[in-house]
Amino acid sequence: MTLKLYDTTLRDGTQAEDISFSVEDKVRIAERLDDLGVHYIEGGWPGSNPRDIEFFKAMRAQKLTASTLVSFGSTRRSGVKAKNDANLKALLDSRSPAITVFGKSWKLHVVKALRVSLSENLEMIFDSVAYLKKRTNEVFYDAEHFFDGYKDDPEYALKTLEAAFDAGADYIVLCDTNGGTLPFEVADIMEAVKMAVAAPLGIHAHNDSETAVANSLTAVKAGATMVQGTLNGFGERCGNANLCSIIPALKLKMGIDCISAEQLKKLRDTARLIYELANLPHLKHQPYVGESAFAHKGGVHVSAVVKSPLTYEHIRPELVGNHQRVLVSDLSGRSNIVYKAREYGVDIESSSDVVKAVLAELKLLEHQGFQYEGAEASFELLMQKALKKKERYFRLLGFRVIDEKKREDEPPFAEATIKLEVDGDIEHTAAEGSGPVNALDAALRKALERFYPNLREVKLLDFKVRVLAGVQGTAARVRVLVESGDGVDKWGTVGVSDNVIEASWQALVDSLEYKLFKDRKRKKGRKG
């Protein structure tokens, strides 16, 4: 069975409360979804906001290897020809190789929301799909509120699907938009749809009844060959079907090779990266990819799982990139270090002193609040330190940051001074900025660029601050995540402290040191 995975984290996922991704975030997530092997990545609704328009423009410079980029929008408006509809024009202007349009399947929405006749709604669906199909590679039709519509009036709901199919839709996706359908209903309705419509079918489930994953798997069992969902289940209200649960269930439990075994091992890291970029705490108890998914604490469970993991684990955690944890004496970690080291071209054994040193340091740092899922550059520098190969590019002699506000109706003024030493040469300089961190970043670059001109290539792409859990109030520890780029690569770095300036300093220093490290590594590689 061939099954397509369709990710809508960048569109439907962003409709969740507390979720907001920058254009740079969305590009980075798209790259990771491509690496994960997702077949389709829905990037957004280019007709609804400038950010999504910018995202599709930015993606023109990105080469996806496993995934196809999809733009999303609605069918044409009432009384407007498809060729004159602004929304359809925006979809084509996005230049995405695939397009998804949604239309109404429930008479309630046709009459109350669109305020058009039932026949005109069918014409809107047909016209939109037919118009787009002549002008792009693939067109998918999302039948919004289909299950509710079918339960209200099966005959009309099926007519909406037939309109899309007759217009040439490559996939017809049945949407449980309100999330109120139960698995046994999905099975019955899927069977009825298969009898009425010959098109390939997909499922798009919401989680308002805590059945989105079950509904998606039930639909696949009943014949759906496309599953739509989001990483971590992000989505409006109670969220969307969680691909972090669906993907391993499909591959490991249903025997459907939707992605490769190597790609599946990247699932946990991808899920955690998206949490980091969303600036949200990781859900510890999330199935498959959560920190507690394979954690065991005391008593009979620990005694049994040490002898055989199968006693209390439904899959091997390594299959999804996770690991077993025994909380009373943590036995895991070395294999992760070895795996990461080999990613960076360092071949070491799990029993080596380097692995032991990195593991000890990692546990200490994570206890302090460091997280490396979105800060791969900081982790690689940590590896270099353990290998005793980390170069020291400069020595800090001191810095001072002033943040001053002179008048109530004026913005604050920030200035940073810094003194450092490079190979015995002292540099003492200052810079202004829009805030204390910006001023410190500017001063650090100004001081170092005389010695390392290639640092002028580095741009700060994103800066996130998270207050870590605690009872200290404004004195709480914070984690700073910085994303940087030089036009060739992008990398993330991290800093943690109870002082936001210090945490920012750590992340900024790692960012610049990683640039110097990777450039020298690349230069040595060319010489070799």
Instruction: Report the average pLDDT across residues.
Output: 91
Q: What's the helix count?
A: 18
- C-alpha end-to-end distance: 46 Å
Number of strands: 16
Helix content: 40-55%
Percentage of residues in strands: 15-25%
Low-confidence stretches: 328-332
| CATH 2nd-level architecture of one domain | Alpha-Beta Barrel
- The largest beta-sheet arranges its strands as 1-2-3-4-5-6-7-8
CATH homologous superfamily title of one domain: Aldolase class I
Largest sheet: 8 strands, parallel, barrel
The name CATH uses for the topology of one domain is: TIM Barrel
Tell me the overall shape.
globular
Describe what this molecule looks like in 3D.
With 528 residues, the protein is an alpha/beta fold. Among the domains are: 4-277, Alpha-Beta Barrel (TIM Barrel); 294-332, H-NS DNA Binding Protein, CATH 4.10.430.20. It has 18 helices and 16 strands. An 8-stranded parallel β-barrel has the order 1-2-3-4-5-6-7-8, surrounded by 8 helices. A hairpin with a 2-residue loop joins strand 12 (413-422) and strand 13 (425-433). Helix 1 (23-36) packs across helix 2 (50-59), helix 16 (376-386) crosses helix 18 (500-527) and helix 17 (436-448) runs parallel beside helix 18 (500-527). It is globular, with a radius of gyration of 26 Å.
